Predict the 3D structure of the following.
Amino acid sequence: MNSIAPWELELFFDGDCPLCVREIRMLRWLDRRSAIRFVDIAAGSLGPDVPAFDVLMAQIHGRTPEGAWLTGVEVFRRAYAAIGLGPLVALSRLKPVDAALRWGYEVFARNRLRWTGRCEGGSCRTATT
């Protein structure tokens, strides 16, 4: 990674998750400057400098052009800032809003496989399991 990348955020998402794909579609539509580089982790071939698939599946990940890794709510903040929604991002940093967003995302991340129909008999499956 270097700081001359043509994008502001490399966003790693689960392309087999219908809820996730809906969010990514909206971000792509709003990303008029191509500030976000979208990487579907379910498509495979991620490269050696990327965390393991199960790590990426546990929560959303992003990477800056400088190579810094981000996870969870901060990835969404960077994505929304990249598409020009800075004022919304600023509001998301207020303590009570931040706490609610972090809690909500943790609940979602823990349950998304079940909520998107990828669990049977107490076991959740992904594209590689």
